[in-house]
Amino acid sequence: MRKLSLFVIPFAALAACGGGDGDVTPIDGPAANCTVSTASYGDKGALTGVATFASSTMNPAIYRIAVQAALEAAEPTDVLFIDFFTGYEPFGTSMAPTAVVPGTYQLTGAQTDFETCGVCVTVGTNATQTGYDDDYMVTGGSVTVTAVGDAVGETLTLSVSNLQLQHVTIDPMSGATAPVGDGCTTTISNGTFTGMVMAPPMQLTGATELPGRPTKTRF
User: Fold this and answer.
1) What are phi and psi of 191, to 5 degrees?
2) CA–CA separation, 28 and 158 (whole Å)
3) Residues 6+ apart with CB under 8 A from 188
4) Domain containing 167: what range?
5) Residue 45 lies in a domain
6) H or E element: which one contains 119?
7) Residue 130 lies in a domain
8) Which tens digits make up the pLDDT trace of 19-52?
9) Which of 1, 44, 81, 145 is the most exposed place for a label (fewest CB within 10 A)?
10) How far apart are alpha carbons 186 and 3 in whole angstroms?
């Protein structure tokens, strides 16, 4: 097996950027125990966050573009993660990866399981610098990429539309995703992101992605 080890900006830097409008509607009714802050984020407008690019040293065609964007203004905050993994549908296979290209990507089928997604959209709840509570995986919606930031220093521009997500468990090794079945869901009707893509920081204390985030393995 060959593991693609990729790191993204620490949450401290993400939190310092702020994010969204910070206005959420508390969940009530049968979903009162859900850790997500709201059943509907509505239109988040321009999301504030960070984007990084890293590639495999063994095969540069295998790479990851990662976006982290805070959905609330202060910790703990729910965080939107958008990850593009080449070598996964719709970006070829592990043996024949293809590049991320501009276009609209529907979040159905393989994209609803972290083990198989090439366009992976999740929300982590109640995130702080030490980790987060729960994973919510997309069950529908779309991501539109206008400008692909597939190198450090380039600009990534994208938008999300009609995202629907549910509370799931994600196996930390395989990425296999299973619904919890507790009725906890959330939606994001619209959101945009644009920013310069950065290199991941060195793997120092506090300088990796949020603890608990699943990884992808290859070959």
Assistant:
1) -175, 150
2) 32
3) 41, 42, 44, 71, 80, 141, 160, 163, 165
4) 2-202
5) yes
6) strand 119-127
7) yes
8) 444 455 444 433 568 999 999 999 999 999 999 9
9) 1
10) 31
